[in-house]
């Protein structure tokens, strides 16, 4: 998505699908000119109220940190409440297609349509559900309002092939990504994903503090290159952790592993 591709993604439930589209969305918006109060930079469509609320809960902390606001428009709530929230303005709209279609129909002043003209990213979660006839009319009306020059991401836990057939979205420069799990493996129910945004100069400090906060855990730290591994090992970046552990009579062993260059290139 960050490399100007529309994407069709099939990924198992619990594999971090929500973050996989929210993070590049925020990254893309953060590189653009600052959005005004009534300019949406991204729209996330989901087939159900519950999923929309869940997505908004995940998105809210990132949006607040970057100075953006999230607006949720879903069925099961009064239309007047949605209209009131839209009048306050927002930058990321998370909605069910039925309610967004209804709001567009009531938009006599075209203020909502104008707010959607700045959309850079359209994300459709559980996109396989959008093949259902009940969504087709709503989608057509919504897509007519959104800019043609946008990035689009279709995400689902199943049926990537079926998503590719959704020509209504007009995907451009498309990439299809399928993430499969072995049939005898499942994502741990206790799996937690963490993401920290910080200055480059502060990254190592945050890594060290995170490791210190988990004194009873084994930790793997990955660097993007063999050079990075060798550098941080050579300068003794993690020696501090070793002495900290010694002072607390904890067991601490530091291992470093790098791949030979030819193997790294072939992987």
UniProtKB/TrEMBL annotation:
SUPFAM superfamilies: P-loop containing nucleoside triphosphate hydrolases. The lineage of its organism: Eukaryota, Metazoa, Ecdysozoa, Nematoda, Chromadorea. InterPro entries: DEAD/DEAH_box_helicase_dom, Helicase_ATP-bd, P-loop_NTPase, RNA-helicase_DEAD-box_CS. It catalyses: ATP + H2O = ADP + phosphate + H(+). Its EC number is 3.6.4.13. Keywords: ATP-binding, Helicase, Hydrolase, Nucleotide-binding, RNA-binding. It is an enzyme of class 3 (hydrolase). Residues 1-177 form the Helicase ATP-binding domain. RNA helicase. This is ATP-dependent RNA helicase. Belongs to the DEAD box helicase family. The Q motif is unique to and characteristic of the DEAD box family of RNA helicases and controls ATP binding and hydrolysis. PROSITE patterns: DEAD_ATP_HELICASE, HELICASE_ATP_BIND_1. It comes from Heligmosomoides polygyrus (Parasitic roundworm). GO terms for molecular function: ATP binding; hydrolase activity; RNA binding; RNA helicase activity. Pfam families: DEAD (PF00270). It comes from the Eukaryota.
């Amino acid at each position: 998505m960050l490399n100007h591709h529309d994407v069709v993604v099939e990924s198992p439930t619990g594999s971090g699908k929500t973050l996989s589209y929210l993070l590049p969305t925020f990254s893309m918006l953060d590189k653009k000119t600052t959005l005004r109060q009534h300019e949406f930079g991204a729209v996330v469509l989901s087939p159900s109220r519950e999923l929309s609320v869940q997505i908004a809960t995940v998105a809210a902390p990132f949006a607040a940190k970057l100075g953006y606001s999230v607006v949720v428009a879903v069925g099961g709530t009064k239309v007047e409440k949605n209209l009131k929230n839209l009048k306050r303005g927002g930058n990321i709209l998370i909605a069910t297609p039925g309610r967004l279609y209804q709001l567009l129909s009531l938009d006599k002043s075209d203020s909502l349509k104008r707010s959607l003209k700045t959309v850079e990213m359209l994300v459709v979660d559980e996109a396989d559900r959008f093949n259902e006839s009940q969504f087709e009319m709503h989608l057509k009306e919504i897509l007519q309002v959104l800019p043609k020059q946008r990035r689009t991401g279709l995400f689902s836990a199943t049926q990537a092939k079926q998503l590719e057939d959704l020509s209504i979205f007009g995907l451009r420069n498309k990439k299809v990504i399928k993430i499969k799990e072995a049939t005898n493996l499942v994502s741990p129910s206790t799996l937690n994903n963490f993401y920290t945004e910080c200055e480059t100069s502060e990254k190592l400090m945050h890594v060290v503090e995170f490791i210190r906060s988990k004194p009873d855990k084994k930790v793997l730290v990955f660097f993007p290159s063999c050079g990075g591994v060798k550098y941080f090992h050579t300068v003794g970046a993690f020696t501090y952790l070793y002495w900290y552990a010694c002072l607390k009579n904890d067991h601490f062993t530091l291992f470093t592993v790098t791949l030979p260059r030819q193997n790294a290139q072939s992987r």
